[in-house]
Amino acid sequence: MLFDTSIIPQNSLDDLTAIFQKITFKSQTTKSTTATTNPNEGQHLLILQKSISSIINRLTPFSTLKKQTRIGKVIWLDPSPKGQQTHDYDQLFSLFKSLVIMVESDNDIAYLTQTMELLKTRIIPFASSPVNSAIGQKVRISIVFAGDSQVRSNKLMLENLGVLGDVDIYHWLTYKPVLLDRDLISLDMAKGGLDHIFHDSSVIPIDSLAKCLLQLVIASNYKIRVTNAYLKGSGSIKFFKHFQKLYDTHLNSLPPHVKKVVVDQDETLFVDAYSFFNRNVDLVCIDRGVDLVAAVGSQLTYTGLCDTLIGTELGAIAFKPDSNDISGTEAGVNTSAANVADTSGSEDFVRFRLGDSKDEIFSLIKDLNFSHVGSILNNKARQIQAEYDKRNQLKDIEEMKKFVGELNRLKELQTWVKRHTLLAEHILGKVKAGDVDEAQTKVGIPELDNVELGEPSSSYFSEFIELQQDILADQLDNKANSAAVLEFMYKHEPKIHDIIKLLIITSIVKKGIREPEYDIFKTEILNMYGMKYIPLLIKLNELKLVYPREQVSFLSTATNYPESSNLGKVQLINDFNLASKSLNLLPETTEEQPFENTIYSDADFSYPGYVPIITRLVESIYSRSYNGRSAAVGSTVLSTPPRQPHTQSLIQSPSSSSYTSLSQAVHQGKQPRKYGWDNLDLSSINGEIKQEFLVPENKRNLFNSFTSLNAHVSNKMVTTKHNRKDMIIVCCIGGLTYSEISSLRYVIQQAGNDFVKDKQLLILTTGVIKSDDVIEALF
Description:
The chain has 779 residues and is an alpha/beta fold. It has 30 helices and 16 strands. Among the domains are: 7-175, 3-Layer(aba) Sandwich (Rossmann fold), CATH 3.40.50; 301-441, Alpha-Beta Complex (Syntaxin Binding Protein 1, Chain A, domain 2); 486-566, Alpha Horseshoe (Serine Threonine Protein Phosphatase 5, Tetratricopeptide repeat), CATH 1.25.40. Residues 636-657 are annotated as: Disordered.
């Protein structure tokens, strides 16, 4: 492993603790001139923005943090005008002489302004009030900005208010990114940063992602050294250029002895072919607009459905179980990990974190299609019961000791099987509108009933899935497609989000909607949902997400499809059918055996028969085996598509050509090669594309002489891959869904290629999104 991602939350927690140690030290130097019997002496009142609590709870139990940082009481930050506030600030302030405000630095201006007004009009006047002065009570005020954005502007805001000298300012720079799983890092931007992309083409997501990557490089002690870059989309190319500038600036700011460490890393990496093969880092960055189909499509994985139907805030999930025969304690209620505020009235809720370090069950089911989750849980329950039954067969003291030693682990496993069974049942209840078989709700752990958790099959859910499949397969003509969507809308009267999703998929597949059908949709949507959605329809049209397609002329039957350059900067697919054929996005269901160690034969398990384009682009770097699998009906497989004019930016430099020679030389005979994006037909997807092999000028001769490598060198590279410390970093600007993440893990695991096998996968995204986020980002 090249990089231990567990240091990310540890560094963040250490930095937060260090900030409070400084605050404590300063507050202790502020001595009162009179004796006091205040029980809160030496403790802090933390005024916390609520959204920060979820990240703190991922780092450590809040009770532990309070002990380590001398936090006496926590209240939510409420910057509402006086009279509308939920707290009696004056009473609370009188109990503490250290007040700490913690607020996100990337809040909108209105919220920050309200917070600063609260500071100026309520907090500072209290701290300097005549009453406090008369009794010699000195109150210290600190403000902690969480995040690295707007550091200068926050200070300037305080200065403009005239309170800069009255408060101590701290910046929790490692507040984000957040480690959601051992291979998943998120910036946790609202809606994945899509609102910035849709409305103002802001560079905030690009800047934040570049800074995050630099932060990871530094945290790895510069062992993460990008050697290959694969970039698709203008945002991705801007991101990598920005990262390179940040990296160069950072290197130039380092003291000589630290800079030498970086130089030594490069020398070690490029000392010979073996070192490079075992230490290279591939960076793949793709714009969200490359595949909005996956962004708005229905997720079918366990984690994807959890997020879609219940919601997961940084992996934390809370739901009221449908089973009435299990008490909150048995179900694993964990209120301590939920919120730091009062949780009264939520005793019946099950709360836990997906990916908890103690959870051995989640890793088995997180990436599965939901239809396979039930069998895994049942098998685990039977295994646990079999282990419990061994207590009746113990023969001597040694066996009893061994059983007792395993007992705690069995109980822990039992608890997690309960929780996930309840969660899976709750998902079924959601898609079936509460109509769940009684047999499916009987859970008696350790004797877990045979809960059969099949694929959700409610009328609404199944029809919604089938309609998406029909649209993607382009099996309906324009009139039939529109009629099917309208019939679905009239029959179910769904929330507008789902109708817009269907129209976005239709517009992508059909290259727009014929003008007569578009006018009908517009009229019917406004009639059913109201005139308030006119701005939404206008925005969809502007971004070419849902737009009318004009006919060439009255006499012509041909269709005037929009030019690729006129599709806009958000949605980049200009020919979905061509993309589907060349990348085999809709693989046909066959009777072929699935790959070894998996129950799937392709990555379409995470969506309704659809493989996300982002997943295929990553897979195509290391394998083109998908071209040998069955394609959807009516499609053809292009094994080696011709290079299109706009893809000439694919690597053609001497260094990149040499790297292709490297892959061919190292893997002679039956050994696979590393394809990169050479000979990959991406003419169906707009946006810049770039592929770079990043090697110092003075080391290029190493890769120009690979054809003369003798056999023992190449064999050494291949046979020692278990010692490798290389990495694949997959980035997405605009967020990824959990189902896309599952499919990425799948293709990397199943590549079976020496250039990817045993590589460490690291997914870095601006946020984990669900389909509703895409629609809400348009408002």
